[in-house]
Amino acid sequence: MRVPARLAPLAALSAASALLTGCFSGGQSATDDSGAGGKRIRVAMMLPPRSALSPLSDDAFKLSRWSTAETLVKLDADGDAEPALATEWTQSGRSWTFTLRDGVTFHDGTKLTAETVVNSLTKAAAASPKPRILDGVDLTAKADGDKVTVTTATEDPLVPQRLSSPQLSILAAKAYRGKTVSPVGAGTGPFELTKVNGTSSAALDRYDGYWGKKAKSPGIDVRFVPDGTARAAALRSGEADIVEAVPVSQAAVLDQDLITEVPMPRTNTLYLNTDKGPFKDAALRAAAREAIDAESIVKGVYEGRADVAEGLLGPALPWAAELRKPVKRAKAGDPASKTITIGTFTDRAELPEVAAALQQQLQKAGFKVKLDVREYANIESDALAGAFDAFILSRATVLDSGDPAAYLYSDFASDGSFNIPQLADPAVDKALKKAGETPTGDARRKAVIAAEAAVLGTDAAVPMLHERVIQGDAAGVTDAAHDPRERELVTADTYVK
Description:
By secondary structure, this protein is an alpha+beta fold. The protein is built from 14 helices and 21 strands. Keywords: Signal.
């Protein structure tokens, strides 16, 4: 395989490996000290916790990927809801009633009850900001014996899918102290979170009281390694068993038998600030869109390990391409040497390269372009506050509910909690509302594509490419999950030989 000239030399991998030496040691044995046998699983994760692993933030997906926190329902491969902590459910108008699974205990030994479920859901619904999955949703929960009734202000066909979001994980009562939520020793999964060392590491042990199948591994040792070269080095050197998000730039120099490309419902998008600055002008947004050559970015930055975007929803949702129609957009105006600032982050190793490529393309079109590149934790608040003229984001489109309507609402509704383009368009709001209210099935899919078309027609977002995540699994790793939705990684079946 050809190794591109821009790749870091192997010496860089060795140096990064040296920095990681011993990173999975220091109190956490590589084998099970309890005598149960087996090896602990060493995992190198990309993004450090941003909210002390609170399930009410995006940190919830870490808890899900470590199989420590669980939800009432989960999603199958098609995005349909199936039993988890709830065994069945029925709908009556605005209310859904869930029957809870018997014999479930939290990691602190307390039992799963309707009251504990109501407590978790009520805390999530009252959080500020709300979990993204509850954007635009007024949800209440009430206990009734071994059942929980969830009611929404308007009839919502997606309640079961919403309750599958890791941000609505059910935790023991002890997890909630004032405005903080700590998942340590408070989940119901096959692994118990026992220790968190800030943004550097975490440890989990097998929970032998688990209601389901006992975990095959005695535990998990997690290190947060934002540097992509260092994560690749951890796989190459044997310092890690499972490596999340190997950068494209490192994939070619690794043993190809150790990496897996997983097509993702994740779109690399350029968000344009519609509220202020040059891109308040629709004609200049159109000029930026026309200046972008996504195919060259896919070939040059991603080495062909991505798909050029035709819309916000990619090949992970094959029905989207089948339903999509041409979108009417504004005509491009003259940039007239307008100065713009593009923000992005370093945590996804390709994004700074994407930013540099866009800078060249937009400058060629007549814009003057400045870049602001930081770690995500240090730039998210500015992006959400509209501090940039444009922002490059790698965005999961069905991460929370398995349904893209929630993502579209969060990112493009006037009151969406992740509205980086600061979009406030009545036509878009109307289309998003219709998509959210339409029952599941073909009608909903058509409404979602209509909402996507409404967003694309504003040029508030310019989709560039759909990513494939590259996961590294060491030779001895068995049954690690390769999950397009990024909800699973280490499961009860995962172990190291």
